[in-house]
Amino acid sequence: MSFEYTEITDPLYVENKDHTGEDDFIMVRAKQYSNVPIKISHWVPKAHCFTTMFKQHEQELLEAEVYPDDVWVISYPKSGTTWAQEMVWLICNDLNFEAARADSLATRFPFLEVSVIHSVPISSFEKAKNTPRPRFIKSHLPVSMLPKRYWEVKPKTIYIRRNPKSVAVSYFYHSQGIHYRGSIDTFVRSFAREHQFYSPYHAHVIEYHELQDCDNILHLSFEEMKHYLPSVVKKVCEFFGKSYSKSELDLLYQHLSFKSMRDNPTVNYRNPNAPASEEQFIRKGEAEGWKKELTPEQIELLDQWTKENVPNLEQRKLFA
């Protein structure tokens, strides 16, 4: 078996699970990771939070094909992934806005491992395999769980991160829109105890930033995109060897504006049968919206959590 599975016995999780409507989480740790080119001395990957569905697809995940002309966008959930995907897809496809509006982002940019977290009609690994090349692949997998071929091929990849307090708030509203019935306070405490999909959060971010000889990965942040979008777009264009005129780029900035993204049905993953009052996938898009959403106690809890999990001051800059 390539992964180790451990039951969660944390009393807070056990006590709240039925009330919050959370899945039957388990912790999954990769046992084969010698091919990961990481700089951390004596590194052993941490266990990450999934459900028992992971067991059904572990071989599909490990053996998933990776091609040299793939383009991947990877992140911890709710870190600006959708925004980065739309930007990357357009830059790589000659700013073809018409094609972008004609097809959903989920079709243009399949979510590789969604089968390990949700029941879907067709295996997400099969869907990704059958996507015409060049493929655009979305993933939230930590470095220790990427398909074996990823490290052989090293496709061009964007990794995007976001302030943990913003992630906590966005993840709460996202989960509430799917299944979560608990309060934001209960969610924040669960998030800080690493009991949400793909956690632990800090390890996810740090490990991607501690890879060596991985020129195929460009690191971005949600906050950088929010405050310096033209600068980010320039970096991404250079990374993919693309060049556009000022007037073309102005259209891209307009397309990537929060209002445009929020009003764009192809990126919102919205259920057409859902009530109009239901929270949209793209909600507020604020860089520091957590200041209005979290209490001082919750902010202190998350700040202390980061200090405890990231003693290295240089690495802590990733979470500012």
From TrEMBL:
Pfam families: Sulfotransfer_1. GO terms for molecular function: sulfotransferase activity. This is Sulfotransferase domain-containing protein. It comes from the Eukaryota. Belongs to the sulfotransferase 1 family. InterPro entries: P-loop_NTPase, Sulfotransferase_dom. It comes from Anopheles christyi. Residues 68-310 form the Sulfotransferase domain. PANTHER family: SULFOTRANSFERASE SULT. Keywords: Transferase.
